[in-house]
Amino acid sequence: MAQNYVAQTKEKNEVWTAVDRYVKEHLVTARDSPYHDALNFAIENQKKEGLPDIAVSTLQGKFLSLQCMILNAKNVLEVGTLGGYSSIWLASSGEEVKVTSVEVEAKNKAVAEKAISNAGLSDRVEVLLGPGIEILPQLRKEVEAGNRPLFDFMFIDADKQNNLNYLNEAVQMCRSRAVIVVDNVVRKGNVSSAEAAKTDERVAGSRKVIEAAGAHPRLQSTVIQTVGEKNYDGFMLCVVK
């Protein structure tokens, strides 16, 4: 089933953009990562192929990579590949890291695999085609059967309406102390509005996943609001007990 992309209206702020530009100049450099050129290729490739401009920002990608480094993560699950930009960031966190990424759109998968191949990561990044609500239960069964290892880190950045379904599956596939990041849950502040949730299913999905995480016996969670060159939004970070 094709995924309908409905992006948030971009909220540009010169200060946010200037800060991102300054920080990138000093903290995200070719000296810093052997995948610097490959990441730039991934962004340009997805633009050229007409994919929507909804990938994580550069600094958000670096944040994901650092989280994996802190955890010494070896097995990573991503829901929502798009053009492979975040997949490369995740895989860049260590030479032993293996990333399983789930993507619903065949075109996106092809674009991502081109970028992943260009990065020399085809042996460490696997892109599975299909809806997350179908693929994740299959992966969980493989984990339960011992055919896949438990995951150390998960990044959920797909259709917001299914965030809760993804989180419920994710918890069952994680080791203790694994981290789950659910992106774009703040929705420019609209997540605080029950009224907004009545007319925007993405806001409703974000509220459901936050409330469920707060009630989940195996999760400790928080939400961090973010600003930057992309927009005002935020993510939920969960640690599995």
TrEMBL record:
- Span-the-membrane segments of this chain are none
**Record GO terms (molecular function):** O-methyltransferase activity; S-adenosylmethionine-dependent methyltransferase activity
Please give the superkingdom of this protein's source: Eukaryota
GO BP field: methylation
UniProtKB keywords: Methyltransferase, S-adenosyl-L-methionine, Transferase
The record's section on InterPro entries has:
Cation-dep_OMT, SAM-dependent_MTases_sf, SAM_O-MeTrfase
Q: What family is it from?
A: Belongs to the class I-like SAM-binding methyltransferase superfamily. Cation-dependent O-methyltransferase family.
**Record-given protein name:** O-methyltransferase imqG
Tell me what organism the protein belongs to: Pseudocercospora fuligena
